[in-house]
Specification:
By secondary structure, this protein is α/β, with parallel strands linked by helices. The protein is built from eleven helices and 16 strands.
Length: about 400
């Protein structure tokens, strides 16, 4: 327990510094693949810690390295944080609210990045107590396809040598601050984007018999496509098909020539994912053509499903209990949200866990991707300390 006590003490000691880092990043958010100033700030912080790194990987990515001095070893553990923010206008009225109009760290990536910098400072002090290398990945573009993780993998961040494991964490406002959550095995869904254009023949709404109504065709198609979940998907494979945009640019008495629809398809099985894509395209084409229209059905492959390595996650969960106490470590449910950390888990053993950031008593309850999202900043102590502890125990 000595290591856990020491790192908890260091997390408390570095809290003010890491909080200042987080607030700076929060005030100056940048969108996916445009994180130039954020990356420069991370680099300058690593410089101040004396930690070596490579920057400008896949644009704005950074990979830092802390090598143990205990003995020679090829063992590598990776820790990952994401840099990008969202196109949301912040409405928190915090003193450190975003200064960049229409951009906000509404998904906690400022927390992930500052926590990893805090963890880096802690780990760097323990180099004499481990062998091997701990890599710190500061990744661009988690929020935007094709996902920064996929680009970093192509750039070779998981090569020379192949890491034994990769670990990531994510804020969870529904979970009280001071708690963390793990789930071995399948955890998060694949995420594909659907872009559909239904074309017909528009005209005056009073004369529908002379038209090929794309609004009616598109509306019926949305209902019919729910068979993907209710009748085509195996009950054993969680599947979600949701549509969030239906654009028919007509009027009360004007039927347009075309309707645009956008949605998302999510599941946990790659074979079924590919089959569902084919079935949706074929069904939609036959359905719309049977009503006299035409259709463009574009499916943009997003992130794969995220699977936490069973052995790694059980080990880290046990270590988290040692660090946090059993009452503060929870089991997580399956989630149909997605994360590009999933790309890493399809190449090397990975573990993606949650850190609680909510506090009902303080009114900190807003969900992520919300203009009112905020955190109880005590979560930074958990964010930096637990990640440092898990990395040192695993290496």
């Amino acid at each position: 327990m000595k290591l856990a006590e020491e790192i908890r003490a260091l997390s408390n000691s570095y809290f003010e510094e890491v909080r200042a880092i987080r607030r700076h990043i929060h005030m100056y958010p940048e969108l996916s693949f445009k994180e130039e100033k954020t990356a420069a700030y991370v680099s300058s912080t690593l410089d101040s810690y004396g930690i070596a790194y490579r920057d400008k990987i896949a644009g704005t990515g950074i990979v830092a390295s802390i090598k143990g001095t205990q003995s020679e070893s090829d063992k590598v553990i990776c820790l990952r944080a994401d840099l990008d923010a969202l196109p949301i206008q912040e409405k928190t009225a915090l003193e450190y609210a975003s200064k960049n109009d229409g951009i906000m760290h509404a998904c906690g990536h400022d927390v992930h990045t500052s926590s990893l910098l805090g963890a880096a400072k802690i780990i760097n002090q323990y180099r004499s107590q481990f062998a091997g290398e701990i890599k710190l990945i500061f990744q661009p573009g988690e929020e935007l396809l094709p996902g920064g993780a996929s680009l970093l993998i192509k750039e070779g961040v998981l090569q020379h040598p192949v890491p034994e494991a990769i670990i990531g964490q994510h804020v969870m406002p529904e979970m009280p601050v001071g708690k963390v959550g793990f789930r071995p095995g399948l955890y998060m869904a694949s995420t594909d984007e659907l872009y559909i254009t239904v074309k017909g023949k528009g005209g005056h709404g009073a004369m529908p018999h002379k038209l090929i109504d794309p609004v009616m065709m598109a509306a019926q198609l949305l209902v019919a496509l729910q068979q993907v979940v209710s009748r085509w998907a195996s009950p054993s494979i969680p599947t979600v098909l949701s549509f969030g945009k239906f654009q028919a640019d007509g009027a009360t008495n004007v039927i347009p020539d075309e309707v645009k629809i956008e949605g998302t398809f999510r599941t946990f099985d790659e074979a079924w994912r590919a089959k569902a894509h084919e079935k949706m395209r074929n069904f939609a084409k036959s359905f719309i053509e049977g009503m006299g229209g035409t259709i463009d059905f574009d499916i943009r492959n997003g992130y794969p499903f995220l699977k936490n390595d069973e052995v790694l996650t059980k080990f880290l969960t046990q270590e988290a209990v040692q660090y946090m106490g059993a009452s503060n470590v929870e089991a997580m449910d399956l989630r149909t949200t997605g994360e590009d950390f999933a790309f890493y888990t399809h190449h090397v053993p990975g573990c993606f866990y949650r850190i609680g950031t909510g506090n009902i008593e303080k009114g900190i309850t807003a969900s992520v991707h919300n203009p009112h999202f905020s955190i109880d900043e005590d979560a930074l102590k958990t964010g930096m300390g637990l990640m440092a502890y898990l990395a040192i125990k695993k290496i």
